[in-house]
Write a structure and sequence with these properties.
12 strands, eight-stranded mixed beta sheet, four-stranded mixed beta sheet
Length: about 210
């Protein structure tokens, strides 16, 4: 179990403009991710150190986005003005979470221009929609060199999260202490005023700490 990535739903001016603001603040380049055909979304990727990454994601005008919980979550967050949508934990086995949540994980994929395909299984988006402080979970499949953090070598490090919510609630959701997947990513827990969820993420960059 490890922290894998954070997801930012694009703001009203769209995927490219939102990504440009974030990449400029971090002093690094973003790269095109691609379309998630099963979810009706597409993303841009900013690789981070320690096998982590930041994705900026946009909902598409596609029937899949009306049916898939991930598409619904992105649409709702962008309609509210955009911003941090959630965080994701990678695990080696989704079976315990499938058993506890009473439903099966769903497959995800996106293709590279050269035909290679990134594939995974994920679960927990409905939990994130109901309670945005909790992470969703995925299991990567296929070629590990295709992980989005490996697009290029990055020195930008995710150092801390500010989450409106409680460590106890997230520990209950994960079935493990929340500190386990976070490792060296610190969390400041604050009492939610309204909807819980990620309020800010701080990154260590070549120019110092940057909080988004």
């Amino acid at each position: 179990m490890r922290m894998d990535h954070v997801s930012y739903a694009c703001e009203r001016d769209g995927l490219l403009a939102t990504t440009e603001r974030i990449s400029a603040a971090l002093g690094v380049d973003a790269v095109r991710g691609g379309v998630h055909p099963r979810f009706g979304t597409r993303n841009m990727i900013i690789p981070l150190a320690d096998n982590k990454y930041l994705e900026v994601v946009e909902v598409l005008d596609h029937p899949a986005s009306d049916k898939a919980p991930f598409g619904q979550a992105v649409r709702a967050r962008s309609a509210a003005g955009g911003g941090w949508m959630g965080w994701c934990v990678a695990v080696d086995d989704l079976a315990p979470f499938e058993e506890r949540l009473g439903r099966a994980a769903v497959p995800g994929n996106r293709k590279f221009p050269d035909g290679r395909e990134l594939v995974w299984q994920q679960i927990g988006i409905l939990g994130l929609i109901a309670d945005p402080q909790v992470p969703y979970l995925l299991k990567w499949e296929g070629d590990p060199t295709l992980h989005p953090s490996k697009v290029y070598e990055s020195d930008v490090k995710m150092s801390s999260l500010t989450i409106a919510g409680s460590a106890e609630r997230v520990t209950e959701w994960l079935g493990e202490p929340v500190e386990k997947p976070l490792e060296d990513v610190a969390v400041q827990w604050i009492a939610p005023r309204g909807t819980p969820g990620i309020m800010a993420v701080t990154f260590e960059t070549a120019s110092g700490a940057v909080t988004i």
